[in-house]
Amino acid sequence: MHFRERLQAWRYNLIPDHVIGELLQKRWIDNAIPFLALVIVVAGFGSAIPGFFNPASLQDSTRQLGEFTLVVIGLTVVMLGGGIDLSVGSIFALGCFAAVACFFLFHLPTGVAFLAALGVGVLFGAANGYLVGYLRLRAFITTLVTFIIGRAIYDILVVSFGARVQLSDAQSDLWDFIGDGTLLGMSVSVLAALALAVVTHVVLTRARPGWHVLAVGGSRRSAHNAGIRVRRTVFLTYVFSGACAGAAGFLIATRLSGAGPGTGQGLEILALTAAVVGGNSLGGGRGSVVKGIMGAVIVLVMTNGLIRLGYGTGTNQMVLGLLLAAAVTIDIRWLKNRHKVLNEVYVAPVYLRMGETQSAAPGSGTPYALNNRLAEAEAIGLGDLEGPEDVILDRDDHLYCGTRHGEIVRFFAPDYTRSEVFAHVGGFPLGLAFDRAGNLLSCVGAMGLYRISPDRRVTRLSAETRRSWTSIQDDARLRDPNDLDIAPDGKVYFTDSTKRYDAHDWALDSIENRATGRLLVYDPATGRTRTLLDGYRYTNGVTLAHDNRSVLFCESWACRIHRYWLDGPKAGTAECLIRDMPGYPDNINRASDGTYWMAWLGMRTPSFDLSLRHPGMRRRMARRLPQDEWLFPNINTGGVVKFNDRGEILQTFGDLTGTAHPMVTSMREHKGYLYIGGILNNRIGRYRIEGADPTWTANDAYWGRP
């Protein structure tokens, strides 16, 4: 290896470029910018203002934060539902006056004052909700009108009754405790905000009403088509926002024991800025309560900090305006261009130098030399199938295969001219295997491991495994379960080809060529799946050895076959059985003479082997060229290979004409015939094996004769 090539290997294999793409696709990455802003704001003002973190100062600030957070939570829910509420400042002020009037003017209990403030908020919220939700008026104009009306009513009430409030002698220990007391070291307003935040978060993420809000905010038409009552959902978001603003008004009433002309003034701008700065989308459907709280802290710390530094109201408003403009710009541009950024950085190829291989050319004299025998195979289901990736036969000689339409089709013996849809699984059924009880198990691409009973009941057995502690990606989910085999004790050994891409993105995985494939086992006794081996380049076919002491599995992009030992002195370890093949291995199955059949889904080409040594070129190719112009493994020409337990190649079969089987992903021996499947084929091939046992079946070999 030349120094330049070695340097390239170090650069692309040791520097984890893929981490950037993995981080950017995480849902929580949207919280990174507001969290970073929160840290900067708190640290900046904390160092610039003496006594900023003084307990007394913090206690007063947190009381304001509790009241402000209640308003922001309500506005956040409206925004998640695709709306906007500019009337929260007026509702907040009217809620405050309602509480003050009940307590100081009418000498009513504190509880009644709270209900009055809450009632005012619900009433105005219901008015907004009815106009926006049921009458379908524009949210911006509608809430702006209710803001103006509400503010006018408040100003009239303050002028008329403000003096009487100030002269009232009403007193209550509960009123004073809510306004100035603490519980567990925290003010009542903070505890109320935290409780509401927890409940709202749980409802939004774990309950049906919350899912409906997010669905409506994401797409009202789609939500309506899905049966969600859109108008009612929108109505309820405004009622909730009004209730939150009214409750916050009650809290400030207890803290100030009065209501003045400036109460709630500009609060709608502060709350809107907080919600957007926290990362909630103005377009709806994307955001969270946590983001709203972060935004509330940022805005409140910034406004109070600027005041304590001696800056006036004008400076405060200018800073808030700039902050809101920046947040809206980031939100819109990121939402629009996120997929473009991911397309640029997610595919992160690594360096691989493939080993020298023997020729598979016809007449080359090597064990891998292909011939034209598969061209003689008769076709089953010609033109009626699309993508029979794997094939299998039951004890009654009926033939089964999966299709790319999510169906498992059964052809009836003996002539296989009649067929039916045996089961609809969904996804793309890949590997197939029968267990001792006659259940058909299948690896379904992007879905998991499934079981179809003889009476056609479909049951999901596994869709995830335990997540590893050191993985930046979510490797718990099964993204590309591919092939499987079943041990005598019922354990299912199967492969998950890649942890980074779903089954339909196999070309991206081949271009990246990162070792993310694994071998797993599902234990029916516990219902759990665990990872046995990890770090292989597209794990694929798998079969148990004839003695059931080991498992053979393929590493497609590395053109290797490995053995994982289940028993004996090497139990729990793996070793390479065949390396540097001229073709990409796929499914493996037992043969009647104690050997094994292996499918080649395609043949290696010098051009792609060379590209594996130039990861930078592959990265540029994936970024700049359309997918139909990419260079990826040739899967249009393949064959069938027979090998033994020592890894010796015994026979090869091919279709040089490309008419009967242009590519092969599976084969299954049954009573002297080889049944052949291909993920790009429109048929199943049936080829008579010369000298094979005409009575041998895989079911009898695995489970004995009935």
Characterize this entry briefly.
The protein is 42% helix and 20% strand. The chain is an alpha+beta fold. Helix 4 (55-80) runs parallel beside helix 9 and helix 4 crosses helix 13.
Strands of the widest sheet, in order across it, are 3-26-25-24
- Helix percent reads 40-55%
The overall pLDDT average reads 91
CATH architecture of the largest domain: 6 Propeller
- CATH superfamily membership of the largest domain, which one? TolB, C-terminal domain
Task: Indicate the CATH topology of the largest domain.
Answer: Neuraminidase
What's the overall geometry?
elongated
Radius of gyration: 34 Å
Can you walk me through this structure?
The chain has 706 residues and is of the alpha+beta class. The protein folds into 2 domains: 18-42 and 63-337, ABC transporter involved in vitamin B12 uptake, BtuC; 373-462 and 478-499 and 515-703, TolB, C-terminal domain (Neuraminidase), CATH 2.120.10. The protein is 42% helix and 20% strand. The protein contains 19 helices and 26 strands. It has a 4-stranded antiparallel sheet with strand order 3-26-25-24, with no helix packed on it. The longest helix has 33 residues, at 313-345. It is elongated and about 110 Å long. The mean pLDDT is 91.
